[in-house]
Amino acid sequence: MTKRFLSTLSILLVALVALAEGRAKYVFYFIGDGMGVNQVNAAETYLGALEGRIGIQELCFPSFPYFGLINTQSATNGVTDSAAGGTALASGNKTKNGALGVLKDLTTPVTCIAHWAKDAGAAVGVSTSVSIDHATPAAFYSHVPKRSMAYEIGSQLPGSGFDFFAASDFVKPNNPDGGPDLYAQATTGGYTIARGYKDYQKKAKKADKMILFQTEEASKIDNSCIPYALDRTKDDLTLQDITRAGINFLMKKQGLRDGFFFMVEGGKIDWACHANDPTFISELIDMDNAIKIAYEFYQQHPDETLIVVSADHETGGLVLGRGAYELNLKAVSYQRMSMVKLDRELKAKKEKLGDKFTWDEAKKFLTENFGFWDGVKLDEDQTKRLESSFNEFKEGKADAGRLCSTVKHVISEAAMIGWQSGGHSNGYVPAFAIGVGAEQFHGRFDNTEICKKMAKAAGWKTPFEN
Predict the structure, then answer these.
(1) What is the model's pLDDT at position 228?
(2) Burial letters for 287-313: b for 16+ Cβ neighbours within 10 Å, e otherwise?
(3) Is the pLDDT of residue 356 over 70?
(4) What is the 3-state secondary structure (H, E, C) of the chain?
(5) What gap in Å lies between CA 380 and CA 371, rounded to an integer?
(6) Whether pLDDT at 93 is above 90
(7) What pLDDT band is residue 9 in, cutting at 50, 70 and 90?
(8) For residue 433, what are the CA distances in angstroms to 140, 295, 411, 412, 438?
(9) pTM of the entire structure?
(10) Angstrom distances, CA of residue 461 to CA of 3, 310, 452, 455
(11) Are the beta carbons of 412 and 278 closer than 8 angstroms?
């Protein structure tokens, strides 16, 4: 018998055993970066407010039948960063803040659930709404002492041999030694690179392994991430596109693989919360829309699928309520753009209008895009702060970021939400689960336990087993 026949027979036997024992054949791991319990609560309460009532409108993933609370501290810090948090979620090992795929000695590499799945014969996908060399996705395939080593992280991607990657781009694709860049290295490693969802659809059928990035035009604007949900155009790559493409491609491998493991990160929930920008709500809802695609897959394969949704840490120290026993999350619905886009728009208006960019023009712009003085009522102090920040920007005494900062603070005040910091906190993060093995995700447990529970549900061997 040929080696290929034996390999195929082995995978078939594993699949039959998994089916007989009720193991998860298809495993989804959604990670909402920065998504604490209050971020989830805010999104559902916001949707309730849009219906004109007090209470929540349920999203898809928080309605999953099993729920747990997760501790997130790293090996060296009471408050984790995304690198250590991602490493714990991926590998079941604590490490030093800033380290990826290694123990806290910064030298000893660790394997993760993506490797365990691959070793068991499953197809593997790793994806994110930010860059593929960012902390969370990198935790699933790289081993470096510092998360800032973006080029080195990207250079390790082809060696993983995983089937599908998706993200905005590489942030540092050029070879510092003058050799082939990361795109060339990936191509040499057997990967087909698609630019945008339409390009993916053209190339996927003939591709053996796939990397899906946003279009080159989008990367010229910002290669570090796909646009915020509030800011994107119809041509922008979305997390839903990434999820749909990943399922499609990983299912293509079923003739040679036994099921799949697919990690999808909603990375810009964290970015918005770092900025104390209420657009985190639309980012969380956007991730839920991606999870709905996986849930539809689950409904078609209920006896073979596990979906787990969790987070690496909470960001911002979000509080729902600012003293008065009230919330006004409907105020967030008037926000038409993120602070990132607002910064660009303000600079463009100043350059185009010059002295004609008056406070009256600015007020009109802010009313149209944030509902100020219309749907969002402002007091005299808030108006004065906005006008003062605008004048400083117009006169060159401050950059556009100063006015953006005032705008986001006013939105939060109007919505009656508070922020403790622009960093991470040690607040609990949630874990939600549905499907085969989901009953394990109940109670309180450490972030290192999530991947182990998932591997157990799938029957994948881990280094922690005797």
Answers:
(1) 98
(2) bbbbbebbbebbeeeeebbbbbbbbbb
(3) yes
(4) CCHHHHHHHHHHHHHHHHHHHCCCCEEEEEEECCCCHHHHHHHHHHHHHHCCCCCCCCCCHHHCCEEEEEECCCCCCCCCCHHHHHHHHHHCCCCCCCCECECCCCCCECCCHHHHHHHCCCEEEEEECECCCCHHHHCCCCCECCCCCHHHHHHCHHHHCCCEEECCCCCCCCCCCCCCCHHHHHHHCCEEEEECHHHHHHHHHHCCEEEEECCHHHHHHCCCECCCCCCCCCCCCCHHHHHHHHHHHHHHHHHCCCCEEEEEEECHHHHHHHCCCCCHHHHHHHHHHHHHHHHHHHHHCCCCEEEEEECCCEECCEEECCCCCCCCHHHHHHCCCCHHHHHHHHHHHHHHHHHHCCHHHHHHHHHHHHCECCCECCCHHHHHHHHHHHHHHHCCCCCHHHHHHHHHHHHHHHHCEEECCCCEECCCEEEEEEECCHHHCCEEEECCHHHHHHHHHHCCCCCCCC
(5) 16
(6) yes
(7) very low
(8) 20, 11, 33, 31, 5
(9) 0.94
(10) 22, 22, 9, 7
(11) yes
For 416-428, write each residue's pLDDT tens digit. 999 999 999 999 9
Q: In sequence order, which residues have a C-beta less than 8 Å from that of residue 201 and are 6 or more positions away?
A: none
Mean predicted confidence (pLDDT) in 174-178: 95
Q: What is the mean pLDDT of residues 192-221?
A: 97
Would you give the end-to-end CA distance of the chain in angstroms? 33
Tokens of 307: 């979906």
Dump pLDDT digits (tens) for 35-64: 999 999 999 999 999 999 999 999 999 999
8 A C-beta contact, residue 194 and residue 237: no
Beta bridge partners of 70: 429, 445
Cα distances from 349 to residues 139, 301, 328, 340, 410, in angstroms, run 40, 52, 30, 15, 21
pLDDT of the residue at 21: 55
Q: Determine the residue type at 297.
A: F
Other Cβ atoms within 10 Å of 459 Cβ, number: 18
Spatial distance between the Cα atoms of 386 and 363, rounded to a whole number of angstroms: 9
pLDDT at 309: 98
pLDDT of residue 466: 58
- Give dist(CA 150, CA 142) in Å, integer: 10
CA angle 247, 248, 251 (to 5 degrees): 80
